[in-house]
Amino acid sequence: MPAIPLSSAPQPADTNPAIIRNFSIIAHIDHGKSTLADRMLGITGVVEARNMRAQYLDRMDIERERGITIKSQAVRLPWQTDGQDYILNMIDTPGHVDFTYEVSRSLAACEGAVLLVDCAQGIEAQTLANLYLAMENDLTIIPVLNKIDLPAAQPEKFADELARLIGCDPSDCIKVSGKTGEGVDHLLDEIVRRIPSPVGDANAPARALIFDSVYDVYRGVVTYVRVVDGRLREHDQIQMFSTGIKHEMLEVGVISPEPISSKGLGVGEVGYLITGVKDVRQSRVGDTVTTANKPAQIALAGYKDPIPMVFSGLYPLDASEYPTLREALEKLQLNDAALVFEPETSAALGFGFRCGFLGLLHMEIVRERLEREANLSLISTAPNVVYHLTLEDGSEVEVTNPSEFPEGKIAEVREPIVRATILAPSEFIGSIMELCQGRRGVLQGMDYLSEDRVEIRYTLPLGEIVFDFFDNLKSRTRGYASLDYEPIGEAPGDLVKVDILLQGEKVDAFSAVIHKEKAYAYGVMMTGKLRELIPRQQFEVPIQAAIGARIIARENIRAIRKDVLAKCYGGDITRKRKLLEKQKEGKKRMKMVGRVEVPQEAFIAALSTNEEADKAKSKK
Amino acid sequence: MKRCGYCDFNTYTPAELREGVDSVASVSQGYIEGLIGELEQACTRLGTRAVSTIFFGGGTPTLLPPDQLARILRAIENRFEITEECEITTEANPDSVNSRSLNQLREVGFNRISFGVQSMKSHVLQVLDRTHDSARVGEVVTAAKSAGFDSISVDLIYGTPGESAVDLAESVDFALSLPIDHISAYALIVEQGTKFGAAVRRGEVVMPNDDQTAEKYALIDARMNAAGFPWYELSNWAKPGHECKHNQMYWISGDWWGLGAGAHSHVAGERWWNLKHPKTYLDAIAEGKSPSAGKELLTEDDKSTERVMLRIRMREGMALSTFSDVQRNVLDGFFQRGLFIPEQWQNGRVVLALEGRLLADQIVREVLS
Questions:
Q1: What percent of chain B has a predicted confidence (pLDDT) above 90?
Q2: For residue A431, with 0-12 CB atoms within 10 Å meaning exposed, 13-18 middle and 19 or more buried, which class applies?
Q3: What does R_g of chain B's alpha carbons equal in angstroms?
Q4: B43–chain A Cβ distance below 8 A for any pair
Q5: What is the pairing mode between strands A288-291 and A237-240?
Q6: Which residue, A3, A223, A256, A452, has most beta carbons within 10 Å?
Q7: Containing domain of residue A359, as a range?
Q8: What pLDDT was estimated at residue A610?
Q9: Are A541 and B210 in contact (CB under 8 A)?
């Protein structure tokens, strides 16, 4: 079980597949995956103690701050078990619902998975979903209970839970502490013993699975692959299956955990390749790499184009930052094949982009990165899903922006449906079911994971969960529930577009596609919210919610009657003049809807979830 | 002695200025020396300009005995020409004067007095953290009249939380029943950093909404007109001939020199303001330096902004011809909404009607942007 010095460890390019073990760690966000990974780097000796920093493998600031891993990486770890040298390739997986496809490709690159569960919390919905993915991929699962050093740890309880899920014996669960290192060497040994070695045809044309693709400012796109058959050699010309495009391979190597170039990668080996392309969309996760001079005939199974599921309009607060936003989106897209965007114009918000995301977290991360990395201030419209419409004349329309939802003459509207899995303590079942029913959910089943923990399955329209479902779920369950969802197709829905009008002018940014039964409530909520948020004007401003020409809710902002400071003497004059200048500046930042001046804060607050808007209101 | 809860003036108690001290006299002597020192600086800069108004205020100058205030007056007279008609005002708190001190004030040269009354209703005064009662107000105003002041003014505050329209009407009517010639009435402003501001922020008191405050302004204006006190500035009403000359000077951008810690001045297109703390103020004077803490030179744009901002608040209003075509267009929109007095508009002047006075800041903003 000792570490092997790197210099004497089996070298990449011709590692015997029999001594290779490829595995992933499946875990929930805060269950300690990064800490365990750090510990493995330390124990196997690939990172010296003095170079160690927390969450070594998480590269982006946001990842380190949020404690989540967005982009996976693969690390080659030499390890000796029972006197024999082995090479363990640890393939890190993203831990969130929106990246299910990326997770599935990472898992497809492995023969086994460590199922890591915090033994003070138990398994979470996303972990369960990933576990099922791993089981579907026929991976060997090693159940591991982490954080056994915690006083609140309940290893026996959760060992039972895991055993029931996987169909193993509770005693098969390995107990570790990523924090103290306890049990980690034993885990490495068990990985060697339990997980099968990769099998492939070394003499067949090369086939390698792309399981990740990362843009690096200095090197261009770095593509992470697992070789299935044949061999990739340095200076080979490679070819992507999905596009047929050929690239010169400038470098090939392994990560241990810094990149080390090698002469190539053989069957079962995991590593990276660099071709000089600048855009991750040319090196797509799930695609198969082969060699141009002796191409394989059949691609590896499972490739899918990423499909955006959630859309939102992103607008710069300051109109002059539009070009900066475009550049920032383009730059982000280099590293994010799933992000799509196209320019759009809003009468209310000006020039911006309609962006498509894999899901809510993906949307949040993109927004945060735009604001942070490009120093932008953004307004985003409420997220919506994509609707497919059949009009009465039989033509088909796709709607990704609610304000473009056609008026009348609609035969059918179809909306995306997801299968949602919620794990929570059983005391919250009633509350969760109430929430899901209220969101047009249909109960599909319920199972007890243990005496007091339950898995609830619903189908729900995605449109019902993109806005504030997760926040609601968390607050109803005191933070204990976890959610996972996956798209399962489309279904017709009784949906209408609700427009919001200020003084008779439609405000495109506030249009929403809503189920007919909820349209009234939405109208009342939005008009009420806007009445609070929009300052009184020189004239009366009616705020209306309408379906087509039919008004369903109305509020009124009365004309302002008093706008004067009573006192103005010698010492007040400078202050008053400066205030006036400031107000003139403020007026420039107002968005005009017809004649109505709407402060940007009102847009932001009206477009945010209820809770945030209430906060803004109480500040007023 | 205490500071009112809503007041954000530059005020200090004697104990705040010198530890272990509790009388005004113990700190006033040195301060007056400082004022005279600054007066000396003013004299050097201004030469022998004639002084047409003198105003002691922005607080409660009558906390000093009349002979001390007289020292300052004499110092001014010794250095400047004082016009025959010179208006010499002191502000006073009803609790800080009596018939004897009022007679003395008159004797040393004050010819106008302005009482900080705020309200006649005790529950309103309590919210404002004030102490006097209405009987006291009647006594001191009558005493001031007997002492022979040319003009007597009363300050009122409206829009205090808990003040009803009836409360306000009673306060205004009581003030008008006294032998006075002038009333200033201000809507209560919540100032940050005051005790009152903190209470509002904590939600302990709730400010009335703007519509209610507008109603109260209309109530005041109606009663003033009925009593023969027409408005001459947004917050000021007077019997004809009793308008405050000193304050009018601010609104027509006249020159003035503010003496004392935190005081503002305006001379020939330059505005400056003094160091706020009495100690730093006095130190500067003692070192022969200007006590100014900051200043600005007004650009032509600034001046024209101020002109509109200040003059529009006055009964004389402004000539339409002083505005550009674009501005006249904006003004016409306001006229259509009934915010200006029609007769004046026909004569080429913009004079605010009642509803216009309530929207004066908005009008200024729109005209200037």
A1: 82
A2: middle
A3: 21
A4: no
A5: antiparallel
A6: A223
A7: 308-380
A8: 52
A9: no
Q: How far apart are CA B197 and CA B366, in angstroms?
A: 29
Nearest to B309 among A538, A563, A577 (CB): A577
Band of residue A386 on the pLDDT scale cut at 50, 70, 90: very high
Distance CA A195, CA A589 (A): 61
Same domain, A424 and A487: yes
Q: Is the pLDDT of residue B312 over 60?
A: yes
pLDDT at B264 over 80: yes
Query: How many angstroms separate the CA of residue A39 from the nearest CA in chain B?
Result: 50
Q: Do A47 and A178 sit in the same domain of this protein?
A: yes
Judgement on whether residues A272 and A339 belong to the same structural domain of the protein = no
Does the predicted TM-score (pTM) go above 0.90? no
* Neighboring chain B residues of A576 at a CB cutoff of 8 Å: 309
pLDDT average, residue stretch B126-150: 91
Q: What pLDDT score was predicted for residue B1?
A: 66
Q: How many CA atoms lie within 13 A of A378 on its CB side?
A: 30
Q: Is the pLDDT of residue A502 over 90?
A: yes
Q: Say if residues A221 and A307 touch (Cβ distance below 8 Å).
A: no
For residue B256, list chain A residues with Cβ-Cβ distance below 8 A. Answer: 570
**Residue A260, CA atoms < 13 Å, CB-side half-sphere:** 17
Identify the burial level of A7 via C-beta atoms within 10 angstroms of its C-beta, where 0-12 means exposed, 13-18 middle and 19 or more buried: exposed
Instruction: Judge if A180 and A225 occupy the same domain.
Output: no
Which among A90, A101, A11, A103 is positioned nearest to A57, based on CA atoms?
Answer: A90
Same-domain pairing of A44 and A95? yes
Structural domains of chain B in order of their starting residue, each with its CATH number? 48-251 (3.20.20.70), 301-368 (no CATH)
Q: Which residue has the higher pLDDT, A575 or B131?
A: A575
Cβ separation of B189 and A566 shorter than 8 Å?
Answer: yes
Per-residue model confidence (pLDDT) at position A594: 85
Q: What is the CATH number of the domain that holds A369?
A: 3.30.70.870
Dist. CA B263–CA A571, nearest whole Å:
7
Q: Is residue A206's pLDDT more than 80?
A: yes
Size of interface A-B (CB pairs under 8 A): 95
Query: Which value, to the nearest 10 degrees, does the dihedral of the CA atoms of residues A150, A152, A155, A159 take?
Result: -130
B302 inside 8 A of chain A by CB: yes
**A63 pLDDT more than 60:** no
**Average pLDDT, integer, range A45-60:** 63
Cross-chain Cβ contact B187/A563 below 8 Å: no
Tell whether B263 is within 8 A of chain A (Cβ).
yes
Per-residue confidence (pLDDT) for residue A414, from 0 to 100: 96
User: Are A84 and A164 found together in one domain?
Assistant: yes
Q: Which stretch, A66-80, A445-459, B340-354, has highest mean pLDDT?
A: B340-354
The pLDDT value given to residue A281: 82
Of B247, B262, B365, the CB nearest to A569: B247
B359 with A561: Cβ contact below 8 A: yes
Main-chain dihedrals φ then ψ at residue B273, nearest 5 degrees: -140, 145
Please name the residue of chain B whose CA is at the shortest distance from the CA of residue A563: B359
**CATH number for A426:** 3.30.70.240
Closest alpha carbon to A288 in A233, A338, A238, A221: A238
pLDDT of A418-440, one tens digit each? 999 998 899 999 999 999 999 99
Model pLDDT for residues B194-233, shown as the tens digit of each residue: 888 898 989 888 999 999 999 999 999 999 999 999 999 9
Asked whether residue A619 carries a pLDDT value surpassing 70, the answer given is no
Shared domain for A547 and A582, answered yes or no, is yes
Structurally, chain A folds into a number of domains equal to: 5
What is the chain B residue with the closest CA to A561? B211
Q: Nearest to residue A15, comparing CAs of A82, A90, A89, A72?
A: A89
Which among B234, B309, B337 is the nearest to A576, CB-wise? B309
